[in-house]
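Tutorial handout. Part one gives the primary structure; part two gives the three-dimensional structure as tokens.
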Amino acid sequence: MTSTGANIAPHVPVLVNEVIAALALQSGDTVVDGTFGAGGYTRALLAGGAGRVIGFDRDPDAIQAGQSLAPEAVESGRLALIEERFSQMDRLLAERGIGQVDAIALDIGVSSMQLDRPERGFSFQGDGPLDMRMSKSGLTAAEYLNSADEAEIVRVLRDFGEEPRARAIARAIVAARPVERTAELAAIVRRAAGFRPGQKSDPATRTFQAIRIHLNAELEELEQGLEAAERALKPGGRLAVVTFHSLEDRIVKRFLRERSGATPAGSRHRPTLSDPNQPTFERVAKPVSPSEPELAANPRARSARLRSAVRTSAPPRHNRSWERLQ
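Part two.
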């Protein structure tokens, strides 16, 4: 994959074969790629028989680069790219005269295209400005860290990075302000966490994840995106979601469990709540992880997990009760 954004070099997305299998494409299907990124899933969808793919991405670089992914598909109308959050898919599809679709693929989190470009500020593997904005608009990571109070930074590191040394790291960030570069932030975190070269994991990873998730409201976007997918899928439509850490996977797992009527049985301490709604999803598959050959070829896939299900004919839910399920 190139780092310029001018063109998208061929690449294989995580769990691509498993995603295509879960979507069970039929010739002529209309499919949503809710997280277009570098276009890997879209390429596979077009090759796998999809009649039309609608790709969403809030990153303007991804949309611009995607125009050259399959020019003939764009020209013929088989591929349409929309610069917007995937949580808005049902509304935007309706605005374009598209009713419900046959399948939806979601690949949650930051894309390799964003990680591999130091100027986007998502990774500490190469030094760059502390940015992390998926949409290239709004508050940058530097602006956030240089203005938020210590308690707020602690909360973000704990909630979105599951960081055990959140307080020490937040204190170090505040003491070092202004913080402007990715390498600078990584060094601050490592000192505060007592990192030593040769340790298995770099504590800066958790801090970068937490700040990125917070700035881009990624978990809220996922929650709303799952509901949008429920509304956008026709009866028999297939949903496939790939996540990369436990916070994301937990949300997808809870959503599909509740929407399929598979909530845990009650007990005398916690009685089962009656649910008047019909299940909106069925055939919820067991989670799938990358194979050993895929992990060997792409170490970034190590935490990926695919969950999939099939839409029933029941009307979509109008509440957010699933978020409160444990």
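Part three, for discussion. The radius of gyration is 20 Å. DSSP finds 14 helices and seven strands in the chain.
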